[in-house]
Design a protein that fits this description.
heterodimer; A: alpha+beta; Rossmann fold; OB fold (Dihydrolipoamide Acetyltransferase, E2P); 6-stranded mixed beta sheet; 5-stranded antiparallel beta sheet; 24% helix; B: mainly alpha; MetI-like fold; two-stranded antiparallel ribbon; 13 helices; 2 strands; globular
């Protein structure tokens, strides 16, 4: 277990930049998710950490040791691949104990340790099965057990759950999180699924299509205080309203004044900004109210999926989506005049 | 296993053409050969229909035994050489860029357009004392005087491997290019050095392909009958040469046929044995 530091990491494949100016400090024993859309460089970053790629520039430090040019087989990191990469010619037990065999550990010890690991991932008694006889979820567990066999300093996972069906994926997420907490191993998981990232991680690293790290923080922090419009839009759904600063703690959006709790520093009057408001923070009331923090409009669509109700409002040029529980369902119908209430605390102002 | 119910004539019609061709050009000639191997040889003439085991009894000679063993030995050796060079070679081709892969494959395929005769004479020229490669080495100051490197076992082996190598690569190419690139990477993250990775994961997971290419070169080499005469000494002549000799120069068709059939049975037995060993290993794992 150790702290991992990435210093000014840059990776280029020919003319294509895969990771740009990455500075990260991943604390010991935590579960970190690299989250971003496809092509944002999150997998490349993981492969750099694993030693499967060399950075074009920058340093990778494990505690104080520079491991930038240490080959993968000398790093003692466990990795689970997207394709799982289980060895098709070996049995389950031989797959799990592969890293021990490479280290010339005695056969009886290997079998013992493999059995222990299979217990850990709830596959007791699968030791002598063949890989082709396993289901997707079971293969998943074998891959996890194999990566953990050497008690790695870092546990790396490259979208390992993407091939599983939705139900199984959710339960594996919980299981994996529980396993990580039990072992206390520093873990990095790459995913494009924000729900998965929110479920499992202590820290989320959000990467954007420009191959940069946009924000790092706890899942709730990132959800509540996105650093920019990309993060606000990518994490969950958000109403992004274009406006401009019109005074101290005041933004004007389409002739409506929005009083907000907090403004970024150094924001002068007239500066264009984006206001991000989460749908569940917006209240819809029937009728037209023309006051601060209120956008009047017409109900254009109601999506009632049972567990929640989404109301779409057309307020002049602005589309507003609000979300509420069925219990607090606003008394509006399709085509009604209604007003969206945006509480000051819910409005996050983002510089452009 | 999917069990197909009989679907009527129309469903089987597409199979009729290949079945017909196979019958006319393979099964019937083979049947004739089996029949001829039991026929009576007319000395100085051709052969008369009949049923006698004389031709098989005549196989039991020291020359036949020695030649059979040597044929199997040279075939096994060529297969071993081709596969042990061809496997890493093909692996490196599959790791190249697409364009480079195509260039290599086209080059290897073009080698196949050369006949056994051309390959044999080309190598005999290259290995000769008067015009061979050794002259080049003398000119470079690496050797004292030019030498003849043929005829001999090494020259024969070289010629056979040159012929069989493209087939080896073509048999190994599809499974190697389908190999998940994450497999060797996984082995490395688990602590295996590149060399260890190559033998334990790449060779290990493709054992079936290796056995298949070995058998292919083995069988291919058994049929080579010109190269031993061009590049080898008489003691390097294989059974195929002996069969050709019986059939063409001695006009002893029944004898040639019985030799060919006996040779085929021995080869089939060896191939079956190899596959059984491969399968046995597999069932042990599962």
């Amino acid at each position: 277990m150790a702290e991992l530091i990435l210093e000014d990491i840059h990776k280029q494949f020919g003319p294509v930049v895969a990771a740009r100016d990455v500075d990260l400090k991943l604390p010991n024993g935590q579960f970190v998710c690299f989250l971003g859309p496809s092509g944002c460089g999150k997998t490349t970053l993981l492969r750099l950490i694993a030693g499967l790629e060399n950075p074009t520039r920058g340093r990778i430090l494990l505690d104080t040791e520079d491991i930038t040019h240490t080959p993968a087989h000398k790093r003692n990191f466990g990795m689970v691949f997207q394709s799982l990469a289980l060895f098709p010619h070996l049995s389950v037990g031989e797959n799990v104990a592969y890293s021990l065999k490479v280290r010339h550990i005695e056969k009886s010890t290997r079998r013992e340790r493999a059995a222990e690991l299979l217990d850990l991932v709830q596959l007791s008694g699968f030791m002598d099965r063949h890989i082709s006889q396993l289901s997707g979820g079971q293969r998943q567990r074998v891959a996890i057990a194999r990566a953990l066999a050497i008690e790695p300093q870092l546990f790396l996972l490259d979208e390992p759950l993407s091939a599983l069906d939705a139900k199984l994926r959710e339960s594996m997420q919980l299981e994996l999180r529980e396993l990580q907490q039990r072992l206390g191993v520093t873990t990095i998981l790459v995913t494009h699924d924000q729900r998965e990232a929110m479920t499992m991680s202590d820290q989320v690293v959000v990467m954007g299509p420009d191959n940069r790290v946009h924000q790092m923080g706890s899942p709730l922090d990132i959800y509540r205080n996105p650093a920019d419009t990309f993060v606000a839009d990518f994490i969950g759904s958000s109403n992004l309203l274009a406006g401009s600063c019109s005074g101290e703690r005041e933004i004007t959006v389409a002739q409506t004044r929005l009083v907000v709790d907090e403004l970024p520093d150094n924001l002068s009057s007239g500066t264009p900004v984006t206001v991000s408001v989460r749908p569940e923070d917006i209240l819809v009331v029937p009728g037209i109210e023309k006051k601060d923090n209120r956008l009047p409009g017409t109900v254009t669509f109601i999506r009632d999926v049972g567990s929640s109700v989404e109301i779409y409002l057309n307020c002049g040029d602005i589309q507003i989506t609000s979300q509420s529980t069925p219990k607090n369902r606003p008394a509006v119908r399709l085509g009604d005049q209604a007003t969206a209430v945006l509480p000051p605390a819910a409005c996050v102002v983002l510089k452009l | 296993m999917i069990e197909d119910k009989p679907k009527g004539l129309s469903a089987h019609l597409p199979l009729a053409y290949p079945a017909l061709m196979l019958g006319i050009f393979f099964i019937i000639p083979f049947g004739i050969m089996v029949a001829v191997s039991f026929f009576h040889r007319e000395p100085g003439g051709f052969y008369l229909p009949g049923f006698e085991l004389t031709n098989y009894r005549n196989l039991y000679t020291a020359l036949f035994g020695r030649t059979l063993l040597f044929s199997l030995f040279i075939a096994g050796l060529s297969a071993a050489v081709c596969v042990s060079i061809g496997f890493p070679f093909t692996y490196f081709i599959t790791r190249m860029r697409r364009r480079a892969q195509i260039v290599w494959l086209v080059f290897l395929l073009s080698v196949l357009s050369l006949s056994e005769v051309i390959v044999g004479f080309a190598w005999s020229l290259l290995l000769s004392r008067t015009a061979g490669v050794s002259n080049l080495l003398v000119w470079l100051g690496l050797m004292e005087k030019p030498v003849a490197w043929y005829p001999g076992l090494a020259a024969l082996l070289l010629g056979i491997c040159y012929l069989a190598f493209p087939y080896t690569v073509l048999v190994l190419y599809p499974p190697l290019s389908r190999l998940d690139p994450a497999l060797p990477e996984a082995a490395q993250t688990l602590g295996a050095s590149p060399v260890k990775t190559f033998f334990s994961v790449i060779v290990g997971s493709l054992r079936n392909a290796i056995v298949a290419s070995f058998i292919m070169v083995f069988v291919f080499t058994l049929g080579v009958y010109l190269l031993p005469q061009i590049l080898g000494r008489p003691q390097h002549w294989t059974l195929s040469v002996l069969i050709t000799d019986q059939a063409i120069y001695q006009t002893n068709m029944p004898m040639a046929a019985s030799m060919a059939i006996f040779f085929m049975l021995v080869s089939l037995l060896l191939v079956a044995l190899t596959m059984a060993i491969g399968k046995g290993k597999k069932t042990k794992i599962s």
